Amino acid sequence: MLSEANPKPVGVLAGHRNGITYIDSKGDGRYLITNSKDQTIKLWDMRAFSQKSAVEATKRAVDCQTWDYRWQRVPKKLLEHQNNLHGDTSLMTYYGHTVLQTLIRCHFSPEATTGQQYIYTGCASGRVVMYDVLTGSIQCCQLQV
Q1: pTM
Q2: How far apart are CA 29 and CA 16, in angstroms?
């Protein structure tokens, strides 16, 4: 996070095990979501920054990655290792979509029609995956072409 008055980082949100592919703000100045090559989306409260130990744990996890989403499927051990990193301050972690060969985005659903109750993202399987923000339950939609 950057302060506009003093453009130096004022805090860090650490917890993904691989690079971030997209960030979307809820538009309320409080919540944002991040989509990552670690096959998760995380919901963050921008007021709850990570401790230095969490930043270090995240750096170690990213440094340990030996696969590349651009041409390799996610190793099963990564999918099975779905516990949060030490010090992860995210409010929720959503599992169930796959990032492969492209940088997949994530967004909050529209305020006017859903009250931003859902997070939606693409998936390498061709589906649109929708997560309930509060429960993390998945609703998938197969696109018809």
Answers
A1: 0.81
A2: 21
Q: How many CB atoms lie within 10 A of CB 62?
A: 16
E-strand ranges in the chain read 20-25, 31-36, 40-45, 92-95, 106-108, 118-122, 127-132, 138-142
Task: Give yes or no for residue 81 having a pLDDT over 70.
Answer: no
User: Are 55 and 88 within 8 A, CB to CB?
Assistant: no
Q: Which two tokens stand for residue 128?
A: 């649109």
Residues with Cβ within 8 Å of 81's Cβ and at least 6 positions away in sequence, in order, are none
At position 21, the amino acid (one-letter code) is T
Q: Could you tell me how far CA 100 lies from the centroid of its own chain?
A: 15
Per DSSP, 81 falls in state -
